[in-house]
Structure formats: structure tokens, C-alpha cells
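User: Reviewer 2 asked us to show a designed sequence for the structure in our supplementary figure. I'm pasting the C-alpha cells here. Could you produce the per-position amino acids so we can include them in the response letter?
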């Protein structure tokens, strides 16, 4: 992440350098308003670089504010450029903020950025064609500028974001069961907030009993099929808003909010769902451990880890009792009043 901050900061440095060059070239900015706008653009680019190099990672709100500010300043600076074609090319600097939005923000934020960029190039292209310079009346040039920017900004950036989202999805999910993997669970838990009114956030660690014997007897392809069926059973038996992850070979974790039944009873429901899987030559059972997250209020990383560790320890106790059993910590026996 440190190198990412350096690279993002370099984008601001490039913006400052571009603004300086626009002030030096005869085809660039001129006049008090033009030079003032160019100075502001150079300053904002420098501040962006320093902000990323020297300060912690920004919040989402601050990040979006920076994107909006840079987009406005880049467009304003491009409007001040004496050579309209050069000004239209200056809009390409918005590709930098678009790339940043594509990687770090949602499709909605990227759509707003792309919309602003395309509106800017349309306005600059119209000014280029209708201006009094050498490009006056050159409609083909204006259309070429718009088409080039649509291809780069309107098509490439959304494609990049889609590819990035698919890559992220691949890194946080288990390809066999299509559940979250351990990294995905950690990521989701950081944002997870249960319904704390008359509810209890719980963690259930589940491990299939004697799964190695299943693999040794029926083969690994059958073992993979059991894991996929287990994932399907957990999806159908767990609450619709619960997080379900495969965190190891045959180990699963379920995190959710108990509303109308104690977490221990939810775990019993999951145990029964697995034990009653049909269409298999062997009965699949599981050992389950249940623990509660501290409540009320959100939890930090340490308390989340301790809760998962408690549910894991309870699961191993269920193993020692012979398996096909639910063991709950004392606080998970009932929903707190």
C-alpha cells in the first residue's frame, strides 16, 4: 500500500508539471485569469502529491472531494488554453482521476467522473470549431476529439473498473464453493454491523467430521462435491444476511445476527441441515462452535479475532465430544435482553 500511495501521489506531480508547461508554451494559457487558473491547477496537483506521500490513507468522502476538485480545475485550466486543440487534449488529464476512481471507488463515482469528462470535451470541441482561430469551422476535428475521448474515457475506464472488480472478487472468494474465503471474511467483517437492537452478533465455526476419511474412501472429486453441497446447504439454512465463508479445507465460518432464536439454536439448525443431506453414499456431519461478538456497538479487529478464536475453540471441543455436536460459549446460549 505504501507504493500505491507513492504512485497516486505522482499523478498529482504530473498534473503540476503539465500546468507549468501550459504556462510556458505560447499555445498555452495567457492573461491574468488564465495564469491564475493555471497556478491553482499546479498548486492543487502539488497538494495532492504531498497529501498522499505524507498523510494516512484518505476517507471515502475526502477522496471523492479531491476527485471533484481536480476535475473542475483541470476543465477550467483547459478552457483557458489559447490553442483550443491543446486545451481539448488537456482534458486527457482527467483520465488520471478516472483511473483513480475506477480502482478505488464505486461504479457510481466513476460514472460521475466519466460524465464530467465527456461533457468537458464536448464543450471544448464546440469552442474549438466555433472559435476564431485556425480550427474554426473544422467540424471533423471537433468530432474526432469527442470520439477519441469517448473511446479512452467512456470505454476504457469502465472496462478497467470491471476487470478490477472481477479481480477483487476472485481474491476474496473461494472458487470451489463460491463462498467468501478467509481474506473475504476479514474484509467483510471490517464493515459488518449487525442489528444491535434486541439482537446478538454471533460467529459459528463449522468443521466437517472425519472428512479425510471421506476423501480417502470416495476420492477427492467426491470430496469437492461434498464441499459444494455443504456450501449450498449453509446458504439455504443460514439467515439471508449472514456472512458465510470457507476458511480452510473443510472448515466454514458463519457470522450473523440472531433475532428470534439463540445463536446456539441457529448452529443446531445448520448441523441438522448438513446431517440430512440426501443423495450421498455417506452421512455428512459437522462439529460447530458458537461465540458472541461484544455488544452493543461495532467491534474492532482484536475483538473480532477473539470472538472467532472463541468459536474455533468451541468447535474443537465439539470434535473432542465425538463430532456432530454444537458447543456454545456461555454468552451464546441465549439472546441478551
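Assistant: Here is a per-position design you can include in the supplement:
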Amino acid at each position: 500500500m505504501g507504493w500505491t500511495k507513492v504512485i497516486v501521489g505522482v499523478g498529482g506531480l504530473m498534473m503540476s508539471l503539465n500546468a507549468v508547461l501550459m504556462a510556458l508554451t505560447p499555445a498555452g494559457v495567457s492573461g491574468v485569469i488564465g495564469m491564475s487558473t493555471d497556478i491553482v491547477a499546479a498548486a492543487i496537483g502539488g497538494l495532492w502529491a504531498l497529501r498522499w506521500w505524507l498523510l494516512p490513507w484518505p476517507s471515502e468522502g475526502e477522496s471523492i472531494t479531491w476527485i471533484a476538485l481536480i476535475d473542475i480545475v483541470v476543465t477550467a485550466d483547459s478552457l483557458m488554453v489559447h490553442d483550443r486543440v491543446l486545451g481539448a487534449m488537456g482534458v486527457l488529464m482527467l483520465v488520471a482521476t478516472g483511473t483513480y476512481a475506477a480502482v478505488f471507488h464505486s461504479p457510481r463515482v466513476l460514472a460521475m467522473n466519466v460524465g464530467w469528462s465527456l461533457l468537458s470535451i464536448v464543450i471544448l470541441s464546440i469552442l474549438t470549431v466555433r472559435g476564431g482561430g485556425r480550427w474554426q469551422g473544422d467540424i471533423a476535428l471537433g468530432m474526432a476529439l469527442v470520439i477519441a475521448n469517448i473511446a479512452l474515457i467512456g470505454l476504457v475506464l469502465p472496462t478497467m473498473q470491471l476487470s478490477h472488480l472481477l479481480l477483487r472478487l476472485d481474491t476474496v472468494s473461494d472458487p470451489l464453493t463460491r463462498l467468501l474465503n478467509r481474506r473475504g471474511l476479514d474484509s467483510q467483517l471490517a464493515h459488518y454491523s449487525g442489528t444491535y437492537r434486541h439482537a446478538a452478533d454471533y460467529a459459528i465455526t463449522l468443521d466437517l467430521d472425519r472428512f479425510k476419511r471421506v476423501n480417502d474412501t470416495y476420492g477427492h472429486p467426491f470430496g469437492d462435491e461434498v464441499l459444494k453441497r455443504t456450501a449450498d446447504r449453509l446458504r439455504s439454512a443460514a439467515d439471508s444476511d449472514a456472512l458465510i465463508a470457507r476458511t480452510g479445507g473443510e472448515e466454514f465460518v458463519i457470522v450473523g445476527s440472531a433475532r428470534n432464536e439463540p445463536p446456539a439454536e441457529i448452529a443446531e439448525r445448520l448441523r441438522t441441515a448438513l446431517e440430512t443431506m440426501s443423495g450421498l453414499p455417506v452421512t455428512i456431519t459437522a462439529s460447530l462452535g458458537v461465540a458472541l461478538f461484544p455488544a452493543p456497538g461495532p467491534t474492532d479487529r482484536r475483538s473480532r479475532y477473539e470472538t472467532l478464536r472463541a468459536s474455533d475453540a468451541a468447535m474443537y471441543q465439539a470434535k473432542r465430544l465425538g463430532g456432530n455436536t454444537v458447543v456454545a460459549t456461555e454468552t451464546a446460549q441465549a439472546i441478551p435482553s
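For the response letter, you might also mention the following. The first strand starts at residue 200 and ends at 208. Confidence is low (pLDDT under 50) at residues 194-198.
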